[in-house]
Amino acid sequence: MELLKDKVAVVTGGTRGIGYATVKKFLENGAKVVLFGSRQETVDKALASLKEENPAWEVSGACPDLCNAQAVTEEINKIKEAFGRIDILVNNAGISDSTPIDSYTSERFDQVMQLNVNAVMNGVMPTVAVMKEQGGGVILNTSSMVSICGQPGGVAYPASKYAVNGLTWSLARELGPFNIRVNAVAPGITKTDMVAALPDEVIQPMINAIPLRRIGESEDIANAFLYLASDLASYVTGEILSVDGAMRT
Ligand code: NAD
Fold first, then answer.
1. Which residues does 52 contact at the CB level (< 8 Å), separation at least 6?
2. Model-level pTM greater than 0.85?
3. Could you tell me the distance, in angstroms and rounded to a whole number, from the CA of residue 95 to the centre of ligand 1?
4. What's the CA gap between 239 and 141, in Å, rounded?
5. Catalytic (active site) residue 157
6. Which one from 20, 104, 157, 235 is the annotated catalytic residue?
7. DSSP string spanning 45-101?
8. Rounded distance, CA 211 to CA 155, Å?
9. Contacts 24+ apart (CB under 8 A), 103-110
10. Which residue lies with its CA nearest to atom 21 of ligand 1?
11. Which protein residues are within 6 Å of ligand 1, measured from CB?
């Protein structure tokens, strides 16, 4: 069953990791997808690999500067012009941080907040206008397990993801009357490039601390996005869905 048949979706940070798995999952379920990446080269690479997998998939890409509200608005308007609508927006692009407090600079704090929080709003603002006009839509944000429990070091990261939770709860309440659902997925440790590069002696203690005794796969997170994007979740809004094997501390 194609859960997203003919839906038009935009996925930021769609060139690798969780975003790429989500783009693929949406395409497998009948959506037309525009993926955003940070560079044209990585966008082209992701598109080539998706097209190789299935030449019939309707997928395209762009690389607006997500921290520039005007650039994002222009890209969202282009997508609206090309497809006539935008049904799903997944705000997935993000950066992690592990800077110890003594080494923090306000520039580093701003850099994390700009991409993890401000860029979410930059995508939401023009897309809400499109969704209101068409009578509904779904906005999905990428939070994190550490938005709930914090982490030692890199304080901007959990702070930014807690802000994402705040945006999610508030937008769900404000946009519910317009038939726009807003939810977030809060992944635990997920096997993307960053985690895959860690040595065994770092990974194994992590696995031991996860009740399900494994690191999450990008597909685990993509499945959660698929559920929340689909009509299976038609009465779910304002939810932060943990997908972390019950590792919360
Ligand atoms: P990743 O580093 O593999 O991918 C990040 C994506 O964001 C890439 O597609 C990249 O192009 C994009 N991106 C990064 N900086 C950008 C910029 N300045 N402008 C535009 N795009 C930019 O990471 P991932 O692990 O797949 O993470 C995806 C999301 O999941 C992030 O929001 C991250 O915070 C969140 N998350 C990841 C984990 C994990 O363990 N991997 C856990 C919790 C939350």
1. none
2. yes
3. 5
4. 10
5. yes
6. 157
7. HHHHHHHHH-TT--EEEE---TT-HHHHHHHHHHHHHHHS---EEEE---------G
8. 25
9. 104/155, 104/156, 108/156, 109/156
10. 38
11. 13, 15-19, 37-38, 42, 66, 92-96, 115, 142, 144, 187, 189-190, 192-195
State how far the Cα of 218 lies from the Cα of 211, in Å rounded to an integer.
18
Cα–ligand 1 centroid distance for 93 (angstroms): 5
Q: Is 127 exposed, middle or buried (0-12, 13-18, 19+ CB in 10 A)?
A: buried
Architecture in CATH for domain 8-243: 3-Layer(aba) Sandwich (3.40)
pLDDT-based confidence at residue 197 (cuts at 50, 70, 90)? confident
* Domain boundaries of the chain, sorted by first residue: 8-243
Residue with CA closest to ligand 1 atom 32: 94
**For residue 211, is pLDDT > 80?**
yes
Amino acid 35 reads: L
> How does residue 192 score in pLDDT terms, banded at 50, 70 and 90?
very high
Pocket test for ligand 1, best of 25, 36, 92 (most atoms within 8 A of CB): 92
Tokens coding 248: 């919360």
Write down the H helix ranges in the chain: 17-28, 40-53, 69-83, 106-113, 119-134, 146-149, 156-175, 193-196, 200-208, 218-229
Give residue for tokens 């945006």.
167
